[in-house]
Amino acid sequence: MVEKVFSTKIQDHIINNCRKKKIPVTIFLKNGQILKGRIESFDQFTIDVEVKTQGKIVKRPSYELVYKSSILTIVLGKKVHIGRDRK
Q1: Phi and psi for 36 in degrees, rounded to 5?
Q2: DSSP for residue 23
Q3: Phi and psi (nearest 5°) for 75?
Q4: pTM of model > 0.85
Q5: How far is CA 73 from the centre of its chain?
Q6: What are the residues whose beta carbons fall under 8 Å from the beta carbon of 81, sequence distance 6 or more?
């Protein structure tokens, strides 16, 4: 049980840093689909991604709500610090 809580905290920490710093991400889904964009929000089960459209001019951004259970991997566009914050 302790390992699950610890891993959830790391996951939430990384996802939250990506959201706050607007770091671009590439999300590979189990069904083979690839989403490129940035994380807008997240909760325990889902991630809301603002998806970049390839070669199209769009007035409003497109959003995808993705279940975390359908994600194979997330590749970050930049490094994210996962250590303890120093005070």
Answers
A1: -120, 130
A2: -
A3: -105, 125
A4: no
A5: 10
A6: 17
Among 59, 64, 11, 61, smallest CA distance to 35 is for 64
Q: Say how far apart CA 72 and CA 69 lie, in whole Å.
A: 8
Q: What does the block give as tokens for 53?
A: 């459209």
The secondary structure element, H or E, covering residue 73 is: strand 71-76
pLDDT at position 79 is: 78
pLDDT in tens, 9-27: 888 888 999 999 999 999 9
- Domains detected in the chain: 2-76 (2.30.30.100)
Element (H, E) at 2: helix 2-21
Q: In angstroms, rounded to a whole number, what is the distance separating the alpha carbons of residues 10 and 24? A: 18
